[in-house]
Amino acid sequence: MSPQPHTPSTPRPPGNTRLTEVDLLRFLAALAVLLYHYTGTRGGPWESDDPARELFHPISQVTQFGYLGVELFFLISGFVILMSAWGRSMADFTTSRIIRLYPAYWFAVLLIGALYLTTGEGRGRPQNIIPNLTMFQQGMGLQNASGVFWTLWVEMHFYALISILVLTGITYRRCITFMSTWTVLAIFARESHNDTLTSILIPEYAPYFVAGMALYLTHKYGPNILLWGFVAFSWATSIRYALPTATAKPFNIPDSNAWPAVPIVVTLAYVLMALAATGKLRWLRWKPLITLGALTYPTYLIHYEIGPPLAELLHPALSYWAATATITAIVLAAAYLIHRLIERPLAAWLKPRLREAFDHLKKAEPGRDHSKTPPTTNETATNPTHTSESTAPEPTPRAHDQEPHGSTPSAPIGSTI
Known about the structure:
By secondary structure, this protein is mainly α. Helices cover about 65% and strands about 0% of the residues.
């Protein structure tokens, strides 16, 4: 028997299930990465003999750690992907990932290609752009069109692994088994130095995803020592991997700066997600934060490649500080337009066509009776408009006495997942 879903001590208002505090954390993670690339690196978008880390001293003493926003992204991903996959069939989960990731990504890749054609700068050569449209270019051994796209390939590994749960039916018990197995095998993969196992199990980033999953179970069912054990073990493992990464290329943070700053930043990411999971950040439930959440993904995708041409255009007419503020404002405005004019319309167009395509797979199996609808879990029954990665299903007091066999029941999917 699975544990009963946790009912928060302060009930949420009806219909107010959006976890806007998670939207805020996602936006802050993206902003940290942006500030790292503009002000905290040993390079930067500026045509200067001095690296950005020197040009923006002393603020760069903080922003040089902004790349760790990616680690917060992975923590959030473990949380929201398990939340959005719960109670869904493999077809629904796949559809949700495609319509969430690809529209803005396709635009970003084509934008990089256009920048190359007009400026001759960047990685937008046509022979590179075409395979990059698949999002699988790194697996093909090809260069990413943008320096930030590598994180999407890490996410793809997570999606492939969590698909095992989706196919078997997501339950509390199966999540615990999955998280335990992945944690241990990832460490074994690191020890073995086996490229195949390392590629599949991504040991350096697995702790963040596992901790995020444990925190979602904490959010859904309430805290217990087992779940906190997963979080603590993942936190310790994350610090082990984060420290040597910080002092190596391309981050090149001096040893004297990396300790204890890196462990502190990683710990802060874990603490923030733990507070969100346990409802301690519920006071941040503010509707405008939904917009910040929507800006996160396109901001992350475009900021790295459009920074240099904008920097060349704005400086020296503007100071480095003023130019950075202006570029950031332009990126955020462009991200909003991408969300409204690209993401939402294209997702709305793709969604019914993908669902129709998966329905054809069912019709191609005449031996199966598709007229019967599997029993609905309490997540989908109580939240049929479950439309966002930051939207949590409403908890109910009914226990999950029966663990499903086969695929999890299908749930309606939203265009913003």
